[in-house]
Specification:
heterotrimer; A alpha+beta; B alpha/beta; C alpha/beta; A: alpha+beta; Arc Repressor Mutant, subunit A; 4-stranded mixed β-sheet; B: Ubiquitin-like (UB roll); Alpha-Beta Plaits; Rossmann fold; 24 helices; globular; binds flavin mononucleotide; binds iron/sulfur cluster; binds FE2/S2 (inorganic) cluster
């Protein structure tokens, strides 16, 4: 009956196991990602199927789709190329990058190339501000980052997709630019482990002051 | 009792129970703090920020934990830097609330300015204009000019249908979330929700079929702007042209208090017409809610061009119009001649006055007064019904409600809502039904039984009780409880208060009488009788079925024999021939048939005399609800010329037959009734019109509390005392239910659906798309066995006749069971074997 | 030699491998906590360390833990890995490079408040990262550090990742909890605060990734040691995400109280082409904008001193803006962000961010006058103090301080608007 469940039974069971049995609704976001995986967007029948699995209303599911930007209710290109042009990136040339990229691909922001391959989108800060210009790619493989980009590298990526060639690897996780060691050594210079005892008579013992949370 | 807290609001001292929110405390002393998102029936959310006030609290010394005092010895009050929301902040001792300071005024102005930036300001064509909190508050606090550029306003859909009945104007919505929260919190059917975010936040439905909830109309009342409108009223009138008339809904036994809004209209030749139906507050009956049937079916039938307006006599085989005089004379003569052989068959939508006079007439002519009802137990309800002072809204933790043989949302939507909310408040809800219903989700105990063994289930529960206060009959021992029944029985027995509602699911007269008796015994044995919030409620088919029982009408299992052997049959507000073709044959055999009706029903077509009557909104009278509350309704619109109220027709026939009867006014009939019917002793139209203040306070100028629901100024009615409350010692009888053998094959089961083809529902324009054609329900396995699919046209074979219907697959139906909704064209009135065949043609 | 508390992977290769992490003392603190300390002792140690939340508000972490309602069970721990403030990219580096220290922090926190389940709420964009974390969690389960009766104690714990899907507001802790419950990510009313009413209505501790990553060291080495770093009221180190127009943007872990000057010039390599620092936004787009005077540059970056120069430290995402940029443009960027990210729940934020963005757009397009600028400022002020959560408040910070402190940038634009023939006098944002 429920096509989504039939298709992804193992994944869905795995997802549901993350949450308390009486809080299945928590699984709505992961299930929407599952539903979106193949077509790149969420269809009306997906809402109903997810609603059934989680025992909530289709409206409860649909609301979620519109609220979050990584779910789409309309088809886009095979790959969504999402360029950050928020303030920090824009200070490092992201607006220009985005404009040139669009020019080269012959589309406007928000549009899809005529071959249906790429949709160019402008997005808010991606937490990669030191490696601007950057974008993320959202497609059937999930989401991944391409950082320190130039218009050329971005176009190369699109070319790879076009020629069905191997996709250049996304930016690696882990190491970042600015890897130099801090020049202000911290007080435990001599130890490498975590548990070394440090005696420091001068440190005061006063507990934190009672400040009210302001946000 | 909660502790009382003292505080000052706008220099007024206030004392309210601990936990009261500031808005409510203010309201109690007549101070209106403006709100949009807050609604006294729902949890506060603090979204709209309209209710911002300055709040000061006594400064507390950190060491001594005592208030710091100034030189005069008064506590030093500390005000926070920010305004705070009065709708989310509970009162605290010594608090000082300022709702009129400059800072607060500025705050209100700012919030209104924000709200108006996206509002279309189309008040001149808005249905809410004149009763719109946004409009009123703008008048009071709003900025005079707009600093927002018109060009930068969002332009959004203005006619967005959320469903068949409710339209959304997206430009007018102020995102207060009341509608969404109503459906989610109060109804538990979240079929509308927010979508998008920020300024694009919109109300939307992704459910199929859309905003389809029996309670949808209430959202239009509580929407604080003209964003949600009903399709029947949209662009219908300006609120200030409308006059309110108090009434009681005539669609089901809950007896929701309603208000008809009327206005003179050119299309009606300058006469008053009903423009809309709104709830009227009655916290013990319907609070400020009504169901969509009340709102959309409650009055539209009265305007139907099909209404009968002239008496008709059969001449040479044809029904031809006649004068009242002639018609009444003929009827009186024939009735008199039929003395001893008159059968009066009346429906439960008649008022107490009608039924009283009909009973007088029938008794005077030594006839039989028969009630149209397929469920029994009305006498038991009169004896053991819920006691005076009952309020489902007060039930909560520690109390128990048992609902048996009822799809309560379909049978009595507002009881469903109130039972569900009692469960939300912590009441133990025991739902006993052969199939899953919408109430199950809220149930503490869900018990299933096979159709036909409802009484056995209750008897088993009785057997499971630990302490038995009387010796139980020996035959009871064979009803052995399973562990679920035992658990439910114990929960019910242990509750502080206990109520049982028994309904119409799979019911016929004998079965429901047995069931009612078993339920009465359970109540008796668990001490849930004779005090408020305890007792038995019958979920009757009609608004005044209980009144009919009280007036002495009784249903009968022998209708066919009665009709065919009667010398005269007097059918009032019923359509036996339409309900069941075999009854038509029986009527054909009787000597003389009189039908008193609104419409030319199947029965009217075969009658000898047809008498046209006044519709409920055109006259006054009283109904007695299933909780045995007697309530008045008032004439709202003029009746078409030529029709007469039922009680008056009965009285005139009586007079012409030589009886002394009251025909002048409903109030005078009621006075007679109160003198003769013992439970109604002491009641009068005046006592029924009494009111007292209710909480929340609604319907005042501020409009925002309760939206457009009306304050109750016309009477809260009087709840009757059941015998169990009057007399201390009380005895319940036992009766062993007969053994019935069930056949093999498919079992047809009558069930009730809210939207049926009843005489007052079919003419509703608004509900036209919601009222289905004939259909039957089976589960997947049964459908597979039959080799039929969902939505297949089929023929239901019933007692040798074939009925066209659509087959629908519903997983909740037990196997080999065919559910047949009542009043949709298939005359199944009891559990009965049926057969299903492929239809040659699609049913019309 | 150790110079980092948090970014230790920069010195220790392959610290993201469990065995490497354990070789460097990993999970000793967790083991010590669950085998030798009472939950309350752990909380007390964290309290004594003076650690303050790194998610923005700077609330004392140990105190928050001590607020957990012990009359209502179960308890939950939620790590806030939503990291969406423009200019912030520190939590990501921690989770990518030094994931186990973060996970150990979550686990110690869970022990301290006796939670048996902890969720890591990551912004949806961290899709790959979440997959990596899932593997690390599996590795911990395989090593017997997660699961039932860990290390033979009666403490049991499971960790789960949960991906958001693109909503800045889900960084706000109550919106995050709503989102984790499968609802719209809209903030709840507070009080009650999460330690009494959190996930599924149960007592919950929500902490930022960086906050939690500090915890293993505090437990291992003690509060006294921790307090030797940073300042009296802002102890410890902090990761400063430096970005904008500097030569070497990136994360710099430095003791709290390091000056802006040191961060920007010593570590960040100064500005390009001899440009001057014009303005600093120390807390991302939500900042009040600091005029980069010499005095401001010498201000120590801690919770107290940043306030003295009219701003807040927030999550310490330092956006550096040079003198080629018009602040009118900067504000327009922030307003597009906040308008896009407002959840829409409360009126002033929903309507105010939309309105401000439109006025700002008109100013940028050359269709505005003096009065519009006044209205913009007024709208911002009218939002303040009226919103349901801090997002609305944040949206006004750059506007009010930008107009107040860089009025001439706006005036220049308006003058240019009044006389469209005049040559381009305002420099483009980026050349
Ligand atoms: C609009 C808004 C966005 C926020 N975003 C984040 C975020 O991305 N990451 C984070 O850790 N805290 C964020 N916070 C702060 C959290 O609400 C919360 O204070 C924090 O997670 C508590 O952790 P801490 O005490 O460890 O700092 C945000 C707050 C607001 C009002
Ligand atoms: S439609 Fe009405 S009730 Fe619903 S959110 Fe909008 S203004 Fe409020
Ligand atoms: S915030 Fe109080 S009424 Fe809306």
């Amino acid at each position: 009956m429920n096509l989504l469940y039939e298709k992804y039974a193992a994944e869905i069971k795995h997802i549901l196991a993350k949450y308390p049995a009486d809080q299945k609704r928590s699984a709505v976001m992961p299930l929407l990602y599952l539903a979106q995986q193949e077509q790149g967007y969420i269809q009306k029948q997906d809402l109903q199927m997810i609603a059934e699995i989680l025992d909530i209303s289709a409206t409860d599911v649909g609301s979620i789709v519109g609220f979050y930007t990584l779910y789409h209710d309309h088809p886009g290109g095979k790959h969504r190329l999402q360029v950050c042009n928020d303030l920090p990136c824009a200070l490092r040339g992201a607006d220009e990058f985005l404009e040139k990229l669009c020019e080269n691909l012959g589309v406007q922001v928000g549009e899809t190339t005529p071959d249906g391959l790429v949709t160019i989108e402008a997005v808010m800060c991606l937490a990669g501000c030191d490696r601007a210009p950057l974008f993320q790619v959202q497609d059937a493989e999930g989401i991944r980052y391409y950082e320190n980009q130039t218009v050329e590298t971005a176009l190369q990526l699109v070319e790879h997709w076009r020629s069905d060639g191997a996709t250049p690897a996304p930016s690696p996780l882990g190491l970042r630019a600015g890897q130099e060691k801090s020049s202000t050594p911290l007080p435990d210079e001599t130890v490498t482990g975590l548990s070394a005892e440090v005696r420091d008579e001068t440190a005061s013992d006063t507990a934190a002051t009672e400040t009210q949370e302001t946000d | 009792m909660a502790q009382l807290i003292s505080l000052m609001i706008d220099d007024k001292p206030v004392k309210v129970p601990e936990g009261t929110l500031i808005v409510n405390a203010a309201k109690k002393v007549g101070i209106d703090i403006p709100v949009f998102c807050y609604h006294p029936k729902m949890e506060p959310v603090g979204m709209c920020r309209m209710c911002l006030v300055e709040i000061g609290r006594p400064q507390i010394d950190r060491e001594t934990r005592k208030p710091v005092l100034d030189e005069q010895g008064n506590p030093v009050i500390q005000f926070g830097p920010k305004l705070e929301t009065a709708c989310t902040t509970p009162v605290s001792e010594g608090m000082v609330v300022m709702g009129m300071s400059d800072k607060v005024k500025k705050g209100r102005q700012d919030i209104l300015e924000f709200l108006l930036t996206s509002h279309p300001l189309d008040c001149p064509i808005c249905d809410k204009g004149g009763e719109c909190p946004l409009q009123n508050l703008t008048m009071e606090h709003g900025p005079g000019v707009s600093r927002f550029l018109y060009d930068e306003k969002m332009h959004l859909a203005k006619h967005y249908p959320l469903g068949d009945l409710i339209l959304l104007d997206r430009e007018r919505c102020i995102q207060c979330g009341r509608c969404v929260r109503f459906q989610d919190e109060i109804v538990g059917e979240p079929v509308i929700g927010f979508e998008q975010r920020g300024r694009s936040l919109q109300i939307e439905t992704f459910s199929d079929p859309g905003f389809d909830s029996y309670y949808s109309g209430n959202t239009t009342d509580i929407c604080p702007v003209g964003a949600l409108t009903t399709t029947d009223f949209r662009f219908g009138a300006r609120p200030w042209e409308l006059k309110p008339v108090a009434s009681v809904c005539s669609q089901c036994p809950v007896g929701c208090n309603i208000t008809y809004n009327i206005r003179r209209e050119a299309r009606a030749g300058g006469r008053y017409v009903i423009k809309r139906v709104l709830p009227r507050q009655h916290e013990e009956v319907n609070e400020i809610w009504i169901c969509d049937k009340a709102r959309f079916a409650g009055y539209q039938y009265a305007e139907s061009p099909e209404r009968l307006t002239r008496p008709m006599l059969r001449r040479n085989g044809e029904l031809v119009e006649s004068s009242w005089d002639e018609a009444l004379q003929v009827v009186a003569e024939r009735f008199k001649a039929a003395t001893g052989g008159l059968v009066t068959y009346a429906g439960g939508r008649l008022s107490n006055e009608d039924l009283f006079n009909l009973k007088q007439l029938t008794e005077g002519l030594k006839g039989q007064a028969i009630l149209k009802s397929s469920i029994g137990g009305g006498v038991l309800v009169a004896q053991m019904g819920v006691a005076k002072g009952t309020d489902l809204g007060k039930l909560g933790a520690g109390d128990a409600i048992l609902v048996i043989a009822s799809d309560l949302q379909e049978e009595a939507p507002i009881w469903w809502l109130r039972v569900k909310q009692a469960a939300d408040r912590g009441a133990t809800l025991i739902v006993v039904n052969p199939r899953q219903t919408r109430l199950d989700r809220f149930a503490t105990h869900t018990l299933r039984y096979d159709y036909g063994s409802e009484t056995a289930t209750v008897l088993a529960m009785i057997n499971a009780l630990e302490s038995k206060k009387t010796r139980l009959p020996d035959w009871l021992a064979k009803y052995r409880p399973n562990r679920f029944q035992t658990a439910a029985a114990k929960a019910f027995a242990g509750a502080k208060n206990g109520i049982i509602l028994f309904g119409q699911e799979g019911m016929d007269l004998p079965r429901s009488q047995e069931l009612a008796l078993a339920c009465a015994n359970l109540l008796f044995l668990t001490d849930h009788l004779g005090s408020p919030n305890n007792g038995l409620i019958g979920v009757w088919e009609s608004a005044n079925t209980q009144g009919a029982w009280d007036m002495g009408f009784r249903p009968s299992t022998e209708l066919k024999e009665m009709f065919s052997s009667a010398r005269a049959v007097y059918v009032v507000a019923a359509d036996p021939a339409g309900d069941d073709p075999s009854l038509a044959d029986a009527l054909e055999q009787s000597e003389f048939v009189v039908v008193q009706e609104l419409f030319l029903t199947s029965t009217a077509r075969l009658a000898d005399v047809v008498l046209p009557v006044t519709a409920q909104p055109e006259r006054e009278g009283t109904y007695t609800t299933g909780e045995r509350r007697v309530q008045r309704f008032f004439p709202a619109i003029p009746a078409p010329g030529g029709v007469i109220p039922d009680y008056e027709i009965a009285a005139r026939i009586g007079e012409r037959s030589g009886l002394k009867m009251e025909n002048r006014a409903a109030s005078l009939v009621f006075a007679q009734l109160a003198a003769r019917v013992s439970d109604y002793e002491g009641l009068s139209y005046r006592s029924l019109a009494e009111t007292h203040e209710q909480w929340p306070i609604i319907g005042r100028d501020d409009l925002y509390y309760g939206g457009t629901a009306y304050e109750n100024t016309q009477g809260l009615g009087v709840q009757l005392m059941p015998s169990s409350q009057k007399r201390k010692i009380f005895q319940v009888n036992w009766q062993e239910p007969p053994v019935r053998v069930s056949g093999k094959g498919l079992l047809g089961v009558p069930i009730t659906r809210l939207y049926d083809r009843g005489a007052t529902v079919t003419p509703s324009r608004s509900l036209a798309s919601r009222v289905p054609g004939p259909f039957i329900l089976v589960n997947e396995t049964t459908a597979q066995k039959l080799d039929m699919h969902n939505d297949a046209p089929v023929q239901l074979m019933l007692a040798g006749s074939a009925y066209s219907a659509m087959l629908r697959v519903d997983t909740a139906v037990p196997e080999s069971v065919v559910l047949v909704p009542r009043s949709l064209g298939i005359p199944l009135s009891e559990l009965q074997p049926v057969d299903i065949r492929v239809a040659e043609t699609t049913p019309a | 030699m150790s110079t980092f508390l948090l970014l230790r992977h920069r010195e220790i290769p392959n610290l993201d491998q469990l065995d490497v992490y354990r070789q460097h003392g990993g999970f000793e603190a967790f083991q010590k906590a669950i085998t030798t300390l009472q939950p309350k002792e752990v909380t007390d140690e964290v309290k004594a360390s003076g650690l303050r939340g790194r998610g923005g508000a700077g609330f004392p972490t140990g105190m928050k833990w001590s607020f957990i309602d012990n009359n209502n069970w179960p308890h939950y721990v939620v790590a806030n890995a939503d990291e969406s403030e423009p200019g912030t990219f520190k939590d990501r580096e921690i989770m990518e490079g030094n994931p186990y220290q973060f996970l150990e922090g979550v686990m110690i926190c869970a022990y301290a408040v006796q939670a048996q389940s902890a969720y890591i709420y990551l912004r949806g964009e961290f899709w790959q990262l979440a997959a990596e974390l899932d593997k690390r969690i599996q590795a911990l389960e395989a090593a017997g550090l997660l699961g039932d009766n860990i290390l033979g104690t009666n403490f049991s714990l499971r960790l789960y990742t949960h991906l958001g899907a693109g909503a800045y507001i889900c960084g706000e802790e109550t919106a995050l909890l709503e989102s984790l419950e499968g609802k719209l990510g809209q903030p709840r009313l507070r009080p009650p605060f999460p330690p009494s009413y959190g996930l599924y209505g149960k007592p919950t501790i929500v902490n930022n990734v960086e906050t939690l990553t500090n915890v293993p060291l505090i437990v291992a080495r003690g509060a006294k040691w921790y307090k030797t770093m940073g300042t009296e009221r802002s102890p410890g180190t902090k990761i400063f995400s430096l970005c904008g127009q500097v030569n070497k943007p990136g994360n710099y872990e430095l003791p709290l109280g390091t000056t802006f000057r040191e961060l920007i010039f010593t570590h960040g390599g100064g500005l390009k082409d001899g440009r001057k620092v014009k303005a600093i936004m120390p807390a991302g787009a939500s900042s009040s904008i600091i005029v980069a005077t010499e005095e401001a540059l010498d201000t120590p970056m801690d919770y107290e001193n940043t306030q003295k120069v009219g701003s807040v430290l927030g999550s310490a995402s330092v956006i550096v803006i040079d003198d080629s940029v018009s602040m009118e443009w900067v504000i327009n960027k922030t307003l597009h962000f906040f308008k896009h990210e407002s959840c829409g729940k409360c009126t002033p934020c929903r309507e105010g961010t939309y309105w401000m963005m439109h006025i700002s757009d008109r100013i940028s397009r050359g269709q505005a006058n003096e009065e519009d600028l006044e209205t913009l400022n007024d709208v911002a002020l009218n939002i303040q103090g009226k919103c349901l959560c801090a997002l609305g408040e944040f949206s006004t910070m750059a506007v009010v301080t930008g107009i107040e402190r860089f009025k001439s940038d706006f005036e220049l634009r308006l003058a240019q608007n009044a006389n469209p023939e005049s040559p381009e006098t305002v420099l483009a944002a980026v050349d």
